[in-house]
């Protein structure tokens, strides 16, 4: 099959990926008439569309982030649906709560738009479901051979070792509000850290929603203490969005250990740039081995690359004699939540 075989199912447009046969976009970056959304991160899920189709959890998350009127019409994805003669189905992506891949079927051809995905177990969401397909659209956030993420449990063990070694210093961990913050909390609980975890106010509503959905986060308390209270904290872990570390909020903590949870913490330049003392390589994206392993497992006729670096992956495709195409879509970020 050549790329032209797939143009009735998918085309890259300035708004994002477009399905001509079904007349809908997937994760568009501009307002459109009908949008299918893979998950709730802002570089995929935006307000202003006329109609939005997504998992129920993603719709709830969009309402939390943008308000209940983020779209004129919303529809929860359930089972296989017919959109303009295109059979559409949603499948777990293993990225964050509610995240899905979108599969399109028509005329004996199947295309899968993965959104962001992970092959590492995450108790907050269903694991990635491999969907046999002719065309696979993959992210490339960490699409360089240097990215081989360690087990997240090992990173949490390093954090807890530091908490025990420096009990008088609060450990402040930067983590994105949707997905990463809750992932760090769950990993801490799995490691036996059953004391209260303090969270910045920007994380509260999304943490509450995870709890409502049955995700066990344990005892969470607001990180709204004053400087005097902050000084009394011992063996404390405080989680906040990265933006909070540039605000006066952080000044209430005396000599904190500053950490950041991200796949980018594998790059020393990023660690220095953020002034991070405790880099935690914890990612909700596929690293290089999982990315290339997924492509080998699915073995599509062709794959398209979006959301990140494509040069190394295009080289890998050439060496593997696989057809690939970089999309160069504008407006997407790489783990910028």
From TrEMBL:
Top-rank taxon: Bacteria
Recite the lineage of the species: Bacteria, Pseudomonadati, Pseudomonadota, Alphaproteobacteria, Rhodobacterales
Keywords on this record?
Exonuclease, Hydrolase, Ligase, Nuclease
Record-level Gene Ontology MF annotations: exonuclease activity; ligase activity; RNA endonuclease activity
Question: What protein am I looking at?
Answer: Ligase-associated DNA damage response exonuclease
Q: Which Gene3D superfamilies match?
A: Ribonuclease Z/Hydroxyacylglutathione hydrolase-like
Q: Which organism is it from?
A: Pararhodobacter marinus
């Amino acid at each position: 099959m050549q790329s032209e075989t797939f143009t009735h199912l998918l085309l890259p447009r300035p708004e994002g990926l477009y399905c001509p046969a079904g007349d809908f976009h997937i994760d568009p970056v501009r307002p459109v008439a009908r949008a299918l959304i893979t998950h709730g991160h802002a570089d995929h899920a935006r307000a202003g569309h006329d109609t939005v189709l997504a998992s129920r959890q993603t719709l709830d998350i969009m309402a939390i982030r943008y308000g209940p009127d983020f779209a004129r019409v919303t529809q929860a994805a359930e089972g296989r649906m017919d959109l303009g003669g295109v059979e559409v189905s949603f499948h777990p992506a293993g990225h964050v709560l509610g995240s899905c891949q979108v599969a399109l079927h028509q005329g004996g051809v199947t295309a899968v738009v993965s959104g962001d995905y992970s092959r590492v177990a995450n108790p907050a969401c269903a694991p990635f479901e491999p969907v046999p397909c002719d065309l696979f659209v993959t992210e490339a956030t960490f699409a360089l051979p240097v990215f081989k993420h360690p087990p997240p449990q090992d990173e949490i063990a390093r954090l807890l070792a530091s908490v025990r070694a420096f009990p008088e210093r609060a450990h402040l961990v930067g983590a994105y509000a949707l997905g990463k913050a809750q992932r760090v909390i769950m990993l801490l609980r799995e490691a036996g850290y059953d004391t209260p975890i303090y969270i910045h106010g920007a994380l509260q509503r999304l943490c509450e929603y995870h709890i409502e959905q049955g995700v066990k986060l344990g005892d969470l308390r607001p990180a709204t203490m004053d400087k005097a209270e902050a000084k009394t904290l011992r063996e404390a872990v405080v989680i906040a969005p990265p933006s909070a570390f540039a605000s006066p909020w952080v000044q209430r903590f005396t000599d904190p250990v500053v950490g950041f949870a991200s796949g980018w913490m594998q790059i020393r330049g990023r660690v220095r740039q953020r002034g991070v003392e405790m880099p935690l390589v914890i990612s909700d994206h596929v690293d290089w081995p999982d990315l290339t392993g997924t492509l080998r497992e699915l073995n599509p006729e062709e794959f398209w690359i979006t959301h990140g670096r494509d040069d190394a992956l295009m080289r890998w495709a050439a060496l593997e004699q696989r057809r690939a195409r970089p999309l160069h879509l504008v407006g997407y970020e790489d783990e910028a939540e």
